[in-house]
Amino acid sequence: MGDYSKLAENHEPEIQALALSPETQAELNTGSDGLSSEEVILRFQRDGPNLLPEKREKSCLWYLGYLWGPIPLMIWAAITFEILRDAWVSFFVLLILQFINGIMKWYQDRGSRTSIKKLKTSLLPQTYVKREGRCEQVASKDLVIGDRIKIKIGDIAPADLVLCEGSCEFDLSSISGESFPVKKGEGQVVYQGSICKKGEMEAIVLATGIRTFLYKSKQKFTVKSEKTSFEKANFWISVSLLIVSTMLVGVILAVVLVRGNDILESLSICTVLLVASIPIAMQLVCTTVLAVGANTMASKKTIVARLNSIEKLAGMNLLCVKKTGMLTRNDLTAQQPVLLRRYTIEDIFLSAGLASKRTPGSQDPIDKCITEYATQKCRINFQAYDELEFIPFDSKKKRCEVLVQNTRTGDRFKCTKGSPQIILAMAQDPEIENEVTKQVEELSVRGYRAIGVARTNKDGKWSMIGLIPLYDPPREDAKDSIEKAFQMQIGIKLVTGDQMAISKETAKLLNLGDKIYHGEIVCFDTTEEQKENLDSVLDHADGFAEVFPEHKYIIVKLLQEKGYKVGVMGSNVNDVAALKKADVGIAVYGALDAAKSASDIILTYPGLSVIMAAVHEARKTFQRLNNYYTYRIACTLQLLLFFATTMILINPSKKHCNQGDCDKVPNTFALPVISLVIITVLNDGTIISIAYDNVAANTKPYKLSLSMILWNSLILGIIPYVSSVALLLMAIGHMDTNHPNRILKFFGIGALNYGEILTMMYLKVSLSDYLTVFAARTSDWFWSSKPTKLLMFSAAVAILIATLLSVYWFLHYFEWTDEKSDFPSMKPIGWGTAGFVWGYNIVFFIFQDLIKVFIHKQQQVRSQNENYYLSSGVVDENFLVFTGSVQSKNSIVTKRSMIAANED
Ligand SMILES: Nc1ncnc2c1ncn2[C@@H]1O[C@H](COP(=O)(O)OP(=O)(O)OP(=O)(O)O)[C@@H](O)[C@H]1O
């Protein structure tokens, strides 16, 4: 294939510079009908799909990777300690823990990889290709060298291309860094990834997949990669817990060793304690939670371009909505036109039809309804005109234009159709200004948007023919969705390129408010006073109409400066800047590839309800993450604090004992390694099921508060910790049959030997660990939201196994090394004591939930004053007039529309 190093050197992408082999050159000589099916198959078989290869791991090695890393290494260390001290039961359980952990990580990782792959697949672009004379849409990955494709405004070059006849402007910023669009024409090369900013033409595929310049020069598309607050939180939580755990465990180890305990056993228990406390799987669990959320959103017609976009969506508190397709159906019907001077209905539909795309598939809804009306109702024959040059619709000009020649008379003239204020400005005819302005207003009151139509006369001067009213009914879901957005504390501002009058009518109709301003108001910010006014307009406005792409960008920027988290909807190449600038760029249904690639969220269905459903799901996803953080930190806290307190401060040998294994009562209270390992194994299942849990979405935009998470975790962790220490103290006192603990005696618990105390504490710690998940998953009472079956099941399994183990503790039958150990082994406690531990746990669980609800209510009262959507300020009418943003009563023409009208 081509020698790209030459291209990179001289930066002059001429095809000659490629030094193509004669065979490749021959393959590029595709005729006007495109390749034949046989050729396509042959070339595809030879070159493979037009994709950049992905790194593939060997599955066996891949799994082994899960048994490696900081935590697996710690487990391997603990396993080694257990071998050295002949503790074979703990050894086997640790080994099982290692493999279960590995399998779970693999399973989670596979799940999130599959979801990400699915997302990527759903984002694969499509291209119009000509094969055997037929134009068809194919996945860009199926393109082969020599394919004749169509490239138009908003498309991203799907492969390296040689351009055919005509010219287009391309944005090469992702390839060469050039910031201004570059005009390219016949015979020139355009690399994969370049964005077509203007025009439409055919091109031949020059290189695909690994043969493209993009791949060879090892460049990648630039992706927004700033860290989200959750990624930062992940990092800080992990690091903080790591530091706290390591320090506490270090202190514990030192104290235990100073007291003369067995080194290996102490090392082993401290290592396992560290394994249980550090949330190394945090990143993985978060990815799984996000991937599950992304999958659910995809099933609800919203594709998330990057997983971290979910966080942005959950935190969005202001949404700039488009009118067409979001608030209205974009299902247009043309109506009886308004004619100026002596023009006829045929004149207006002939010019409008000529200035429209007429090939089915390439038309937008405006072109479609106008050509249908022209051919079906006015019987216009477009064959009588040759199209010499067509300039497609462009939001910067807000119109399209055509140069045609009458095949019979040879007369040449231009036709244009577009926004009425632009067409009126082009006509430069003061006599019709009042009339057109009045008609546009009247049509909008009746619910019609107007399209202006003009043609050139013999002198080449533009003459406005009239207005075509288009009926675009509001979407059924629009009103409810707006209402829902307000309930979800998301401010809605209409930001539309459409005409002011109809935008106002639509906004009013949908209860969006009637304070709609011209987009150009935002370009006016010189003096402090004017800035203040502008500030007020921004808060107070229900929308902006007649906006041009640059206005969209400035509106987003100014709103962000005021502290809003702004979502912006876009569909075409001119929206790219605003989409990239927004906190959440949303490509609407049918958006062009350029807009999609600049967005965080891609809608695959029209209407506002889709995005509202996506926000709802995004907030649920973040509630899950919040719950996970809270639960995970609470678990670490209760375990660490319990072990630190009991191992450092409690000396059971000082208590009087006359029951059972008194000679073995140690000077340090520590749960055996095996019990800690079992707690950790069983906890894994509960943790993973949080990713799939049922949660209630927040009624407010999500705002990550680490302090709130830590505070909640502290409450949830401290109560089980205190209750565990209290139970331990009661149990140790109960070793003395002469002076048993009064509370335990009251509940009919007989004197306990030390092995039974260990088991009792194992059950206590396990149960409060597993029960805490039910308190952590809601901010209201634990019964206020039903957990998923998966969560119930995993928690039930963990609880049941812990209970059965405690009642029967059959593992001690295998503990043949019991005699060697300094620490006595656990003993079965029977149903009576287990029942008491259960009751004790339930009482404290309810207490834990009560305190949690109380604290949440306090937090709610405090945050009630936080207003996410401000609506204040008074706008000075003089300011509006002064800035030229209030048009004169007699004309819809504004300063910006004059500029657009005179643009080439
Ligand atoms: N194919 C077309 N031919 C002529 N005029 C068009 C065409 N498409 C759109 N327009 C005009 O441009 C205006 C919309 O401009 P633009 O597409 O830039 O706005 P937008 O922000 O995408 O608008 P919306 O909020 O309605 O989606 C329409 O009101 C219409 O007057």
Key phrases:
904 residues; alpha+beta; Calcium-transporting ATPase, cytoplasmic transduction domain A; Calcium-transporting ATPase, transmembrane domain; Rossmann fold; 7-stranded antiparallel beta sheet; elongated; binds adenosine-5'-triphosphate
Q: Can you characterise this structure?
A:
With 904 residues, this protein is α+β, with helices and mostly antiparallel strands. The chain folds into four domains: 146 residues, Calcium-transporting ATPase, cytoplasmic transduction domain A (Distorted Sandwich), CATH 2.70.150.10; 332 residues, Calcium-transporting ATPase, transmembrane domain (Up-down Bundle); 186 residues, HAD superfamily/HAD-like (Rossmann fold); 139 residues, Calcium-transporting ATPase, cytoplasmic domain N. The protein is 49% helix and 13% strand. The strands form four sheets. An eight-stranded mixed sheet has the order 10-24-23-22-11-19-21-20, with helices on both faces. Strands 12, 13, 14, 15, 16, 17 and 18 form a seven-stranded antiparallel sheet that branches. Helix 20 links the parallel strand 22 and strand 23. It starts with a helix and ends with a helix. About 3% of the residues have low confidence. The structure holds adenosine-5'-triphosphate.
